[in-house]
Design a protein that fits this description.
By secondary structure, the chain is mostly helical. It has one domain. 73% of the residues lie in helices and 0% in strands. The chain is globular, with a radius of gyration of 14 Å.
């Protein structure tokens, strides 16, 4: 519930998080931006992030598919020459962006929930 609520708060405060998340990613790993050269309207980034959000919500819920999806996508991204550690790092970037979007509404419990989530995802990736 904490993670879901933090996503809601961040989007209430800042709207669509796609641009912020990818800006953070490209600041950290500028070489990855070239992989999105054909994504001139941001649709691919938006779709990818939508799948990440869906996986996060499933992962903190029923875990009906997210663990397998995360493992499979980590493998798929290796085929794009994105190391598994970078794939897992993306979820941390999402967390950092959400934290920034929540501002003062982010608390220690929310932080701990995201740290746990990112740790569990790293173990799968």
């Amino acid at each position: 519930m904490l993670i879901e609520r933090s996503l809601e708060i961040a989007t209430e405060h800042g709207g669509d998080l796609t641009a912020s998340i990818y800006a953070r990613l490209f600041r950290e790993r500028p070489e990855l931006e070239a992989m999105f050269a054909m994504d001139t309207d941001g649709a691919v980034r938006g779709e990818m992030l939508s799948r990440v959000f869906d996986a996060i919500l499933d992962f903190i819920g029923d875990r009906a598919y997210a663990p397998n999806w995360i493992s499979a996508e980590a493998t798929t991204h290796e085929g794009y020459l994105v190391p598994r550690a970078d794939f897992a790092r993306f979820f941390e970037i999402v967390s950092e962006t959400v934290r920034e979007g929540c501002g003062d509404e982010w608390n220690a419990e929310t932080d701990a929930a995201w740290v746990r989530l990112c740790s569990d995802i790293t173990a799968l990736a």
